[in-house]
Design brief:
Elements: E1 2-4, E2 10-12, H1 13-31, H2 40-53, H3 77-91, H4 98-120, H5 129-141, H6 143-148
Antiparallel strand pairs: 1-2
Amino acid sequence: MRLKFLFGTDVDFFLIVVALGFLLRIATVFTVPDFYAPDEFAHYSYIKHLHDFWMLPEEVFKTGSISGKWEFHQPPIYYFAAAIFLKIFGIFGISGNDAVVLRMFSVLIWLATIFMVRKSLDNFRKFGELYYWLPILMVAFLPAYVFISSEIN
């Protein structure tokens, strides 16, 4: 769907949706206090363990323990990727709040997700625009997904 704006230029509606979704997530990254999301500290602990030791942790803690290490049973691919992302920021001297850096990693994953959703829905467009746009708009603007896709999870 293409929209005509005041200046006479055509702008792809999808890119507007992506830009607005991205801005919502950036606002969430910087306004929600660190470790406010459920299990965010536990996910951070897993990533930080991989970042510091480059080996899988041993799961020995119960859910909700004060240690924050109860997510160590999760499959490691996301956590290794996040640890590498965190390491890259450290190598280039971009230091600061690890939580913000890792939240930005989650936003990048959301960007990849919305583009994959769009691509996977190409075949549904023949059934009508609603079948195409509704899932895209939900991935972009569903409040719970905006929140969770801009946190460490």
